[in-house]
Specification:
This protein is mostly helical. Helices cover 68% and strands 9% of the residues. A three-stranded antiparallel β-sheet has the order 1-3-2.
């Protein structure tokens, strides 16, 4: 696949952003390439296009599949696995947020629940610290419950809601 200068800039930038988001540059660049690609690509084509080692491509593709950002597909007449990325930006956002929730928020909620229960019996921890832990637990549970509700809102409604921005406050008493 031949990359135009615009495609190259996008892929390079996405790679830099990936490093800031806690993933490797290669993973992010492969995702960017597959997002832009008009047709499914096989691993060798990805490696050749991005000038990345084939072994790195394989590991990166597995990570992207674990995140559910990339799917395996097959092309008639070709035995190799080909890969596509989610193209719908809304679906992409929801998959990323859900993945981060599972990996970051859910374990933190488990810990905060344990700490809150232990703090109720603990006489050594100051009341102010216990209150902070309880407040953070309450906040994160509220945030999680809100996200679960937002996920059930139909996409057109949610997009309309987002476009309202701060105007939505007119509907809140």
């Amino acid at each position: 696949m031949e990359l135009t200068p615009i495609m190259q800039r996008y892929i390079l930038h996405w790679g830099e952003m990936g490093a800031r988001w806690g993933t490797s540059r290669s993973v992010a660049q492969i995702h960017a390439l597959l997002y832009l690609a008009p047709q499914p690509l096989h691993a060798e084509e990805i490696a050749e296009t991005l000038e990345i080692a084939r072994s790195n491509v394989s590991v990166s593709l597995k990570e992207l599949q674990n995140w559910e950002l990339v799917q395996v597909t097959h092309v008639l007449g070709d035995r190799r696995d080909h890969f596509t990325a989610l193209k719908d930006n809304w679906s992409l956002l929801m998959v990323l947020v859900e993945g981060r929730k599972k990996r970051e928020i859910d374990p933190t909620l488990v810990l905060l629940r344990e700490l809150s229960a232990e703090a109720a019996r603990d006489t050594r921890t100051p009341a102010e610290i216990k209150a902070r832990i309880t407040a953070l637990l309450s906040f994160m549970e509220t945030l999680t419950n809100w996200f679960e509700q937002v996920k059930r809102i139909p996409k057109p409604t949610l997009v309309a809601l987002m476009k309202l921005g701060s105007k939505v406050t007119r509907f809140i008493g």
